[in-house]
Amino acid sequence: MNPVPLHFDEIQVGVRGRSGGRTLNETDLSFSCMLSGGWHPIHADAEFARTAPSGQRILHGSYCLLIATGLAADLPYLGDRVLADLGVRDWRYQLPVVVGDTLYADVEITNKRVTSNPLRGVLERRIQLIKADGSVAHTGISLLLVNRETITS
Known about the structure:
Blueprint lengths: L15 E3 L3 E2 L2 H11 L4 H4 L1 H4 L11 H11 L10 E12 L8 E13 L5 E12 L4 E12 L6
Antiparallel strand pairs: 1-4, 2-4, 3-6, 4-5, 5-6
């Protein structure tokens, strides 16, 4: 049974949600390097990384942003009411993310507004990428353009 998507007008500022977890592995680290083309030794050289503050190789911050927005995709659940992702701002890398970390996305609706087209709205979501120990690895703001039309089946 599929959940019923929320209507824009039902969503309250201050509502929070948490995604399921995702444990990162060696494949994630390899994808991080391959997709970005960034092979800095902090990502790719275990011997070098042992001397770094983290003591081990870290995943690219931009890869972690991809993970965070993926984990947060259905928070809140809007189904096909999402028309576009309008971008991310103020994204901060607060802690390194390493192979073996289990991550969750905490999402809070921080603002919402109707656009100049009354059939569209913008949701502002604060996304925090949380490690299993509760520490915040990354944080930032995501904006979604949402259809406000009443959808009938």
